[in-house]
Design goal:
By secondary structure, this protein is α+β, with helices and mostly antiparallel strands. It has 24 helices and 15 strands. The protein has a domain at 3-40 and 419-632. Helix content is 44%, strand content 13%. Bound molecules: zinc ion.
């Protein structure tokens, strides 16, 4: 139900281009850091950099440090929310892991390695259920080995816990959608205890806040049925609050952060959040959310608390999450430059003048650098945030929407060398362009698409977005993509300092055509059509262009070499002309609401899959062993104190491994009891 957040853009990243008029490209110290940290099952662990952290003021660094501490102290809460046994499973496995890893004779043992993989997966999922697929995963080591190893190392183990880990019929689904079972009773997640769906819904109905500025009843509480009575246990630091042991530490660190607040607005945000964590009062939460939306000047910002409601089968209670970040000034400046010039782009686009906006305002995107990830943002994380979730706050007070540049950068850099470009790109020429400009140009593409593309053009009187029905979002995404593709090759972008030279766009052209015509199909199952609207948009663009090239001197073409299909681009400026032509067509379809023509475009270019080509692409992809899901390790922050105990500097390190990090967090930030009722 509720919404927001988490924009997953597909790939890409941020090596930002210099500010206005200056073509300096910020380069990444790619050799200093190991971006690929670990790999197991369908998961890869990456490392992200925090560029510019060193250049923050001491006050900002101290603020980041204490907010980071507040972020780490909530980790246990999410484990318990995901399933009531998660903390016990994690702690038992960690105790065994630490005991065994001190024994050289054991660590190369096959059973030990299988057990280690299981524990790594528990850390990744914040529990025993797959973070995405939601079903329980089982250890591959044998139950007998596990029981014996625990016994030999004096680690307490109950039969109940063994069943939770090894029996596939126990708690099989985090959220169970079986029509013949009760949604709440059959789900392993821990937002309700002993209630049926009907009982919980009735309770919410009865306690609903119908005022103009309603409290989000249930956001920070668990409903428990005891002796026929339903009680609400509120998550708060005071009194008998559920999760109080963790929230007290969160509050303590927010209070320290308060001493380093950058602005009065930010001070108010922190004060309200501290008060909310203490009391659990939802009116205070609203005040906090409004203060947070209004704090636009502070460079450092954060999310900390019960936020996204995807984990609750009823979509009401927030999973605990945290992220500390600060504004990426260079990238944010780039989006400001684009939107300041929005009218120029509109006036010069290849669309028919009657479909252009007379007054065009671009959108400014805030780009941020993540400094720490916690709770539901760790290790797997969104690369965009759009909060708060309450609609009335969004409407009356606004919202903040950000993209997280250093995480997309990490995805991009980690993908260099995963074998993908080696397999699918035609030659070293295209691969070198990708290395040099790929990260920057994917960012520029996202910026042009979001800041200018969607806001461009106008609908004819009487036409609405609904005219194109099921094809509306495919055509709208194609329009924004084409606007971006057309302009990224324009000398204006060099002039504005957005791109460094007139070659940079080529790598994004190559990527878009290859991806849309071929490589995105590796994410489609053999025998299936293309369904998702962004994928349809990309297929439409690439296949339309390839179908409209010059028959004698094709601007771009698919060629076969050694039995494999490749893309060859012969004339990049010629491809730009084709993008411009298609932009004019798509704009007309959207502006006039021409449903039949939309159907034609989508059916001809965006849906069908050539089964032979598809089989070949999948066969080439499989041996690369690329992990479908990725997560991160955090950097390590080390405060340096002066004689008065005030922070005088904060050092940042990028050398902690995945296992090391989780074991450290479990030692240093794990205040909750095994069982939280
Ligand atoms: Zn879009």
């Amino acid at each position: 139900m509720k919404r927001l957040l988490i924009i997953l853009v597909a790939a890409l990243a941020l090596v930002s281009c210099g500010s206005k008029g200056n073509n300096k490209v910020r380069t990444v110290g790619a050799d200093e850091i190991e971006y690929n940290v670990d790999r197991f099952y369908d998961l890869a662990i990456l490392r992200y950099r925090v560029p510019d952290f060193e250049n923050l003021s001491t006050q900002q660094k101290a603020l980041v440090y204490y907010l980071s501490e507040a972020a780490l102290w909530g980790r246990d809460i999410l484990y318990d929310q995901n399933c009531r046994y998660n903390l016990r499973v994690r702690r038992t496995c960690e105790a065994l892991y630490e005991a065994l890893s001190r024994q050289p004779s054991v660590v190369s043992d096959e059973q030990f390695l299988l057990f280690e993989k299981y524990l790594k997966r528990v850390w990744f999922s914040n529990g025993i259920h797959h973070h995405y697929a939601e079903d329980k995963f089982l250890p591959e080591c044998t139950e007998a080995w596990f029981r014996q190893a625990c016994q030999e190392n004096n680690i307490a183990l109950t039969d109940e816990l063994v069943r939770v880990m090894f029996d596939p019929t126990v708690l099989p689904k985090k959220v169970c959608q079986d029509a013949d079972k009760d949604l709440l009773l059959a789900s392993a997640c821990n937002y309700y205890d002993g209630l049926t769906r009907a009982e919980a819904e009735a309770w919410y109905e009865q306690h609903k806040d119908t005022s103009a500025e309603p409290r989000w009843i249930g956001l920070n509480s668990k409903l428990i049925k005891r002796d026929g009575q339903i009680i609400e246990r509120v998550f708060r630091a005071e009194g008998d609050g559920l999760y109080r042991e963790a929230l007290q530490h969160v509050v303590e660190n927010l209070e320290k952060a308060l001493e380093y607040a950058e602005t009065d607005e930010q001070r108010l945000v922190l004060q309200k959040l501290i008060a909310f964590n203490r009391t659990g009062d939802l009116k205070t939460f609203n005040e906090y959310a409004i203060a947070w939306v209004r704090d636009l000047e502070s460079r450092v910002d954060f999310v900390n608390g019960f936020t996204e409601v995807y984990g609750d089968p009823l979509g009401i209670t927030g999973a605990w999450e945290a992220m500390v970040n600060f504004r990426d000034e260079v990238a944010t400046d780039r989006t400001r430059t684009l939107s300041a010039n929005a009218q120029w782009f509109e006036d010069n686009s290849p669309t028919d003048p009657k479909y252009k906006k007379k007054e065009c305002r671009g959108v400014t995107a805030k780009v941020i650098t993540a400094a720490i990830l916690g709770g539901d943002c760790y290790p797997a994380t969104p690369i965009g945030i759009n909060l708060p979730n309450a609609n009335w706050i969004r409407k009356n007070y606004g919202s903040k929407s950000v993209t997280i540049a250093n995480l997309t950068e990490a995805y991009y850099l980690a993908a260099q060398g995963d074998g993908f470009n080696e397999e699918y790109y035609l030659s070293d020429e295209e691969r070198e362009l990708a290395k040099k400009y790929g990260a920057l140009m994917s960012d520029v593409h996202v910026d042009l698409h979001e800041c200018l593309g969607h806001g461009s053009g106008q609908l004819m009187p009487g036409v609405t977005k609904d005219n194109l029905k099921e094809h509306g979002s495919t055509l709208e995404e194609a329009r924004a993509d084409l606007f971006s593709l057309y302009y990224m090759a324009d000398p204006k972008l060099v002039e504005l300092g957005i791109v460094p030279d007139e070659e940079a766009y080529k790598t994004q052209y190559y990527h878009q055509l290859l991806n849309g015509a071929m490589t995105q199909l590796v994410r489609v199952e053999q025998g299936k059509n293309i369904e998702e609207s962004h994928m349809r948009d990309r297929a439409l663009i690439a296949r339309w262009v390839l179908a409209h090239v010059d028959s004698v001197k094709p601007e771009a073409e698919i060629i076969v070499q050694d039995g494999k299909h490749y893309l060859r681009v012969n004339d990049y400026q010629g491809v730009r002309r084709l993008f411009g032509q298609l932009l004019a067509i798509v704009q007309e379809v959207v502006s006039t609401g021409d449903y039949e023509r939309a159907c034609q475009l989508v059916e001809d270019y965006a849906v069908k899959v050539d089964p032979d080509l598809h089989r070949e692409l999948l066969a080439r992809y499989q041996p690369l062993g690329i992990a479908p899901y990725k997560g991160f390790v955090n950097p390590v922050y080390q405060p340096v104190f002066d004689e008065q105990g005030k922070i005088k500097d904060v050092l940042i390190r990028y050398d902690e491994g995945y296992t090391e990090q989780h074991l450290r967090y479990s030692h240093d930030y794990s205040p909750l009891p095994d069982v939280n009722d």
